Amino acid sequence: SAGAVASPMILQRSGIGDGNKLSPHGITPVIDNPNVGAHMQDHLGLNYFFKANQPTLNNVLHSWSGRIKLALQYALARRGPMALSVNQCGGYFRSRPDLDRPDQQVYFNPVTYTTTPKGTRTIINTDPFPGFIIGFSPARPTSRGQVQISHADAAAKPLIQPNSLATNQDCQMVIDGAKLCRAFANTESIKQLIDTPFGEDVSQMSEDDMLDDFRKRCGTVFHPVGTCRMGANAKTAVVDHELRVFGVDGLRVVDASVFPNITSANTNAPTMMLAWRAAQLIMESRK
Ligand SMILES: Cc1cc2nc3c(=O)[nH]c(=O)nc-3n(C[C@H](O)[C@H](O)[C@H](O)COP(=O)(O)OP(=O)(O)OC[C@H]3O[C@@H](n4cnc5c(N)ncnc54)[C@H](O)[C@@H]3O)c2cc1C
């Protein structure tokens, strides 16, 4: 239960993995199963930023007095913006009417901010003007990446190859999501709140621009899954339907790595559901 990055690496360092990739690290393969560490999926997300012509959370959060007021409101009454997710509003949408189920998660945040450069301590600074974000995350990516050990030493960092946007379907989903955000920004109710877009302006983008922009600016939504996936047999998977590692007695994997496919929504609740089910299975197997 070490998570979708660490669980496959524990198996790999124990000799359970792709034999061709273990041998160069001096690890003797015990069970040759290339599915260990493979099939990784994740959600990616991207934000569009707008200056607003009405006060937003920026107006409060930009000053220390405002921050203290919100902190006190939360501490004393458990109310206010600090009692909410930063994604105060959002939902699942079909970007095209012909789809039979939602393909996009969309977020609305009444705040805009800059973050410190990568590699430095993360500090989020809210902008000194009112602003808000419309962001999206394609919900059903199909590309698959991998996690492999970089060294036999357990302290060595993982090799993570997300392989994102490797399928035409995923690229199309990005374009559809960007267009959906543009459509939201164009609705009467939101248009009247916008002073001007800032940063990358989706209203001016061609489809190619949308995809290029996504490739440049997108980030993980931190939902890696699938690296010890569940399935019918060791040809396609790492664990069986009771989460038992193929070929090893008494070993289960219980975390997001066993998801056969990424869920369309966030992964925390499904992981908790999986853990409950795994606990039942383990209890039953001991009767
Ligand atoms: C920044 C961030 C924000 C997120 N936001 C959301 C959200 O808003 N909503 C949502 O639904 N999901 C969110 N997620 C995803 C969610 O947290 C994960 O899907 C979920 O925690 C997966 O559970 P897990 O048990 O598979 O792995 P984890 O929760 O990662 O648990 C694995 C545990 O194993 C431990 N471990 C690792 N290696 C070893 C080792 N060698 N020995 C012993 N212990 C080890 C780790 O320290 C960790 O405690 C977020 C994730 C991140 C990183």
Protein architecture, described:
- The protein is α+β, with helices and mostly antiparallel strands and 287 residues long.
- Helix content is 30%, strand content 18%.
- It contains eight helices and twelve strands.
- Strands 3, 4, 5, 8, 11 and 12 form a six-stranded antiparallel beta sheet that branches.
- The protein is globular.
- The mean pLDDT is 96.
Gap from first CA to last CA: 23 Å
Number of strands: 12
Give the class from helix and strand content and strand pairing. alpha+beta
Along the chain, the helix and strand elements come as HEHEEHHEEEEEEEHHEHEH
Tell me, briefly, the overall form: globular
CATH topology of the largest domain: Cholesterol Oxidase, domain 2
**Any idea what the radius of gyration is?**
22 Å
Bound molecules: flavin-adenine dinucleotide
Mean pLDDT rating: 96
DSSP helix fraction: 25-40%
Please give the CATH class of the largest domain.
Answer: Alpha Beta
Could you write a compact summary of the structure shown?
Helices cover 30% and strands 18% of the residues. It is globular and about 65 Å long.
Label this structure with key terms.
FAD/NAD(P)-binding domain; globular; 287 residues; binds flavin-adenine dinucleotide; Cholesterol Oxidase, domain 2; two-stranded parallel ribbon
